Amino acid sequence: MENGTINFFDAPTEWEAMSLSGHTAPPIHFSFSDDGSRIYSESQNEKLVWDVARQEVDWSTMWEFPAEEATISPNGRWLISGDRNEILLVDLELKNTPIQKEYRARKAQFDSAWHLEQANGAAGAKNWFAATLHFALLVKNAPEQVAYHDGLLLPFDELKSQSEQAGRDIEPYLSPVATETLKLTPVDERSNPSFEEPRIRKEAFEFRTAIPGWRSTRGLFEIWPTGFLGVPAYDGNQFVELNARNEGALYKDVTNIEKDTSIEFTFAHRGRNGEDTLKLIITDLGADNAPGGGDDTELFAKEYTTGNREWGVYDNKAEPEIKSLGNRVRFAFSAVSAASGRGTGNAEGNFLDAAHVGAAVMRPNR
Q1: How many whole angstroms separate alpha carbon 282 and alpha carbon 359?
Q2: How large is the greatest C-alpha to C-alpha distance in the chain, in angstroms?
Q3: Which listed residue, of 43, 87, 99, 220, carries a Cα 20 to 30 Å from 71's Cα?
């Protein structure tokens, strides 16, 4: 009811079915007649009788308010309710017809394409809260999709960085679905170790904002095809150069390493213009399974230097045993220095390929 008008609605869709005008003040009492064919409504200015079938005022029927007020019709089909200046007539039976059940089931289906569009749009607009929410919903609906996990971590890392700069805790502001998916995000430690996805052209390197199975603190990856500028891939047909345009870390988070299990790694490294140095840091992310928070533990850190004539292959075999603490583990590769590199921030140099990390890792056959 609005401005003295009674509105009829289709309950499942909330589409207005009919507006009936008559009252000049908000109704204060309303009830079905004993047979359900009439509605009696009363405001401080007038008393009206409504014909339910014709959905209009019945001027020929005397106003006789029932002894017992009834907001549900005797046959159980109709419900009337009041809200300030409104009276709503709701069709309860319509909600249970096969057509309406099918409609509600269809509306309840998860629309992955729409959420992905919203997530990418929000990330492009740097609306990190919205991007985090939509990617979290995508992860919840399809946890096997590694790309959704990768998409979730980028806006979350941006949110976390902004919150830290502002000196506030991000957790109270996250939606419950984001909090849960961030804690439970599984990433297969064997996924895309040689950066074969996404496939790029063979003629030149490409910048990409996402690589399945991997993340970047700068949100940008530089992928090279084998043979470009005379540099062959160590394994497969593609490899990456650390840093892309700016300094940052390329990393992978692994969640399925049980406590006290030995952590392993192997990777291929190569300089671009001479001897380049990268650093591998392995970090237990603590009980919250997220970086920061004061409970992170560095499990391993070492620098590796390799020339540009061939690939150097490194692993954990000669290192002291690295044991899991049972939480999510982050394997991060970052450039320390690059020989004769052009550009700022060590942006040119340090090739990486065949990076297998986790427990009982697979090693490329050569």
Answers
A1: 13
A2: 101
A3: 99
Residue position matching structure tokens 């096969």: 98
| Cβ atoms 224, 238 nearer than 8 A | yes
Cβ contacts of 155-164, under 8 Å, gap ≥ 24: 155/119, 155/122, 155/123, 155/128, 155/129, 155/131, 156/128, 156/132, 156/182, 157/215, 157/217, 158/126, 158/128, 158/219, 159/128, 159/129, 159/132, 160/290, 160/291, 160/292, 162/128, 164/292
Distance, C-alpha 226 to centroid of its chain: 33
Residue 137 phi, psi dihedral angles, 5° rounding: -65, -40
Residue 143 pLDDT exceeds 80: no
Q: Which amino acid is at 46?
A: E
Closest CA to 252 of 299, 208, 216: 216
Neighbours of 187 (CB within 10 A): 21
Encode pLDDT of 279-330 as tens digits.
999 999 998 878 887 889 999 999 999 999 999 999 999 999 999 999 989 9
Q: Tell me how far apart the alpha carbons of residues 197 and 189 are, in angstroms, rounded to a whole number.
A: 15
* Length of the chain measured in residues: 366
CB proximity list for 109: less than 8 A, separation 6 or greater: none
What confidence tens digit (pLDDT) does each residue in 154-203 have?
Answer: 788 788 878 888 888 877 778 788 888 876 545 454 578 999 999 999 99
The set of residues, in sequence order, having a beta carbon less than 8 Å from that of 224 and lying 6+ positions away, is 205, 231, 233, 238, 239, 240, 241, 351
- Report d(CA 277, CA 270) in Å as an integer: 9
Categorise residue 98: left if φ over 0, alpha if ψ from -120 to 50, beta otherwise.
Answer: alpha
